[in-house]
Specification:
By secondary structure, this protein is an alpha+beta fold. It has 11 helices and 9 strands. The chain has helices at residues 10-27, 31-37, 44-49, 72-84, 99-106, 109-120, 247-283, 290-323, 329-352, 364-376, 381-393, and strands at 126-129, 145-149, 152-163, 170-176, 186-192, 198-202, 215-226, 233-234, 237-238.
Length: 398
Amino acid sequence: MSTTTFELSPELRKHSDALREWSAAEVRPYAQAADAAKLAPANWREIFDTAPVPIGRIDIEGDSLPVFSDGYWAGQLAFYENLNYGDIWAAPLLTRGIGQLVVDAMGTPEQIERWYDPVIAGEVMTGFALTEPHFGSDTSLVATTAVRDGDEWVINGSKIYCTNGARADYITVFATTDKALGAGGIACFVVEKGTPGFTVPKANESKLGIRSWVTSELLFEDCRVPIDHRLGWNSAGPVDTAPSVSGRGGALTALSNNRPNMASMAIGLAQASIDVATGILKERQGGFSPQRWAAVSNNLDLMNAALDRARRVNYKAAFVLDHGTPNRYSPAIAKSYAPQTCDRIIRRCMQLLGPEGTSKELLLEKWYRDVKILDIFEGSAQVQRIIVARELVGRLAG
C-alpha cells in the first residue's frame, strides 16, 4: 500500500475484486432469509466452499487469509469491505471474536499461552462482555461485580450484546472489584463455557439490524472462577511482570484496533447500496428530464466521493497500526466518520429510488438497519469524537 495515496497493491486489489464479485453472487442471495430467520443460512459451509480466494475460514484448516505487502491491518480492511459488499451475515462466521485481544493486552505470559495462543491457532472462539443493560459506551458505569473469596472470584451481574456469547469457549468479562474507585476499579476475568453460575438467557437478542449475528445476553449469579482467571494475576495474586493495563484500558485497546474493521463493513454496505441504486436508476434514465438526471448523477458522484474519503481515513488508521505507533486516535477518526457517512449514503440511495427504496424487495432497507448498528457497536461516533478531542486538547475534552 502506498504510504501517500493508500492505494492497494495489485495483489490485494486482485484478491479484493474476486472476493467482492463472489460475495455479491453467492452471499447476497441469502441476505433477506438470514435477516428474517435471525440466523445464518444452514448451508453456509457449502456457500463458503465456492469462494475463489481464501476467506479465512475457521471451520477448516488451511484457509488463512493471505498477508499482503500492504500490511496485516490493511488486508483486514480490504477483506471486510469486500466480504460485506454481498451482505453482512457471513462476517461473524469468519472470526473467533475479540476476547483474546484483551488477554494479549492484559495477560501474564502464562495467561497468553493458555487463552490467546489457542485462538491464534484456530482452536478457540471467544466473547467480549462489557455492555450492560444500563450503559453502552461509558465503561465507567460497569455494575457487574467481582468479589474475592479466598482463592476464587465471585462474579455477579449481567451483560448484553455479547457477540459469540452463546457459542464462545470463553468470555472476557469486565467487572468492578471496588465501586468506590469508579473506572479504576474495573478488572477483567476469563469465564469459560460451562462455569457454574454462568448462563445465557438469550442466545441471540432481537435487534434493529445485523439480526443474524449471534449477540447474547449473559447472566452471572455467584459465578466462581479461580483467582488466576483475573487477567494480570496468577494463583498468588498480581504479577509484577504483567502489562500495567487496567481493565478499562484492556477493553478500550481491544475495541480500538477493531474499530476500522467495523467501519470497513459499513463501507461495503454503502458501496453495494450505491451500485444497486445506480443500476436501477440507469435503467430508468429515459424517464428523467436532462436536468433531473444531471442532479441524480451528481448525487451519485458525491456519494462515491464521500465513500472514497471514508476508505482513505480507514487506511490511514491501518497504516498507523501496521507501520507506526498504535494509538486510539486514528481508529477513532475512522469509526466516527465512516458508519455515519454510510448511513447518510444508504438513506439517500433509498430516497433516490422513491417508495421502492424502502421495499423489502430490495436490500437497501436492510442495509440501512445494519449500518445503524455498526455505528453504535464498539463505540458510537459521538464517543469516537470525544476520543479524538482528548487526543488533541487533553483529557478534559468531553
